[in-house]
Amino acid sequence: MPKLPEFPFPSDRALRPSPLLGDARSGGAPVRVQLVFGDPAWLVTRYEDARTVLSDPAFGRDHERAGIPADGVARMTPIDPTSGTLLTEDPPDHTRLRRFVYRAFTPRRVEGLRPGTRRIADRLLDAMIGSGAPVDLVEGFGLPLPIQVICDLLGVPVADRDRFTAWTDALLSTSEMTADEVMASVAEMNGYLADLAALRVDHPTGDLIGTLVRERIEGDRLSGDELNNLLRAVLAAGFETTASQIPNFVFLLLDGGDYARLAADPGLVPTAVEELLRYVPLIAQGSLTRFVLEETELGGVRLRPGEQVLVELAAANRDAAVFSGAEALDLARESNPHIAFGHGLHRCLGASLARMELQVALSAMIERLPGLRLAVPADQVPWHTARFVHRPRELPVSW
Fold first, then answer.
1. Got the DSSP string for 147-181?
2. Cα–Cα distance measured from residue 110 to residue 24, given in angstroms and rounded to the nearest whole number
3. What b/e readout covers 265-300, taking b as 16+ CB neighbours within 10 angstroms?
4. What is the pLDDT of residues 359-392, one digit of tens each?
5. Cα-flanking dihedrals φ and ψ of residue 344, to 5°?
């Protein structure tokens, strides 16, 4: 039996999808691959196939329903970072649990956070400008902006931000930590969140933690574990996407010369954010594993119950059958049905929040720092190389 291709495929440059993904997409059919952990999986790279897997009930997120043991789940990390959370539930539990937190992320609620987010951005930029160039954009702006926003939303002390980033780094580590070390970090995070929830029992609050605690006490519709897992998913996912994409976007804009164009035409920011979401791969290849629940055909391949499927969002978002000039970054692209936030039932709950934060971040930066530039050559920017989500370790900038 021939050896399966190892996944993720190698890439020759940061934020550039592997050419092998394009080869797989050109082939049309899903291809069989082997990840670092777990059993083999089918890799899906075409846009329409990706949408099918992400929305068709023939594919689920609960590995137990497919008869797959936890250690057999195809993954890049020692443990599944989403294990036990909303992201691994299928209906009806997924529908019930998602409803509890959806109200915090409605477009209307998120839009109400825009002025406060801009104030946070301006304070951070004031501090950066006051300290003088060069500065690390990751530490000075990329991380603290979304952390402060999600902390305000949840009701979590911003002073604990270093603990949040350490816990999230552990969850998303692909090789820097052992499974036992990751589990210890998860246990510490769970204990912290349980303590915050316990405080709301006698001292109710209007933040998201307080709201969920009321649902548990008054409606008896949430178990203690469900409450904790919801909070863990929201806290980690609520800032990780934006915290990573702010420096990713800025690096790409500066490296390619598009930052100056955006600074000269601020009205492009909304379409630029959508195009950057399409163009910049966030996850280090392969989205969350789906499990085949009933026999079905995809791209000419017969998939059977118990098999696993990976959707490669970065490849799907560069499918020339859907996107004209798919390999080019076009900040003014008008038709842009990207699936950077996923699709279907498990589409990212915080998509509206991430989109708003990214718009605010870029708008504030091009207004306050129109002459921003990399403080080191692009090939000297250090990147996380053993992490499920892409982002620079540091992004030195000047102005």
1. HHHHHHHHT--GGGHHHHHHHHHHHHBSSSS-HHH
2. 38
3. eeebbeebbbbbbbbbbbbbbbbbbbbbbeebebbe
4. 999 999 999 999 999 999 999 999 986 556 778 9
5. 80, -155
Q: Using alpha carbons, select from 179, 118, 188 the residue that is nearest to residue 160.
A: 188
Span 169-173, mean pLDDT?
A: 66
Q: Domain boundaries in the chain? A: 19-240+282-323
Pull the structure tokens for residue 389.
């989500």
Measured distance CA(27)–CA(45) in Å, rounded: 9
pLDDT at 153: 87
**Tokens 């780094």 belong to which residue?**
169
H helix intervals, 292-396: 313-316, 351-368
Per-residue model confidence (pLDDT) at position 220: 56
CA distance 377 to 291: 43
Cα gap 298→294, rounded to integer Å: 12
Residue 61 pLDDT grade (very low, low, confident, very high; cuts 50, 70, 90): very high
Quick one: which H or E segment has residue 290? Answer: strand 290-292
What pLDDT, on the 0 to 100 scale, is given for residue 230? 83
CATH number of 19-240+282-323, picked from 3.40.1190.20, 3.10.580.10, 1.10.630.10, 1.10.340.30 = 1.10.630.10
Residue type, 267: G
Does residue 185 carry a pLDDT above 90?
A: no
Q: List Cβ neighbours of 212 (8 Å cut-off, separation of 6 or more).
A: 100, 101, 197, 222, 227, 230, 231
Predicted model pTM = 0.91
Q: Peptide bond preceding 69: is omega within 30 degrees of 0, i.e. cis? A: no
Q: Return the residue matching tokens 């690096």.
A: 251
* Closest to 361 (Cα-Cα) out of 134, 117, 138, 15: 117
Which pLDDT score, from 0 to 100, does residue 168 have? 74
The residue to which tokens 């080869």 are assigned: 23
3-class secondary-structure state, position 391 = coil
244 by Cβ neighbours in 10 Å (0-12 / 13-18 / 19+) ranks as buried
Strands 396-398 and 373-374: antiparallel
Least confident range of 35-39, 121-125, 185-189, 221-225: 221-225
Contact predicate 218/256, CB 8 Å: no
Q: Give residue-wise pLDDT tens across range 325-335.
A: 999 999 999 89
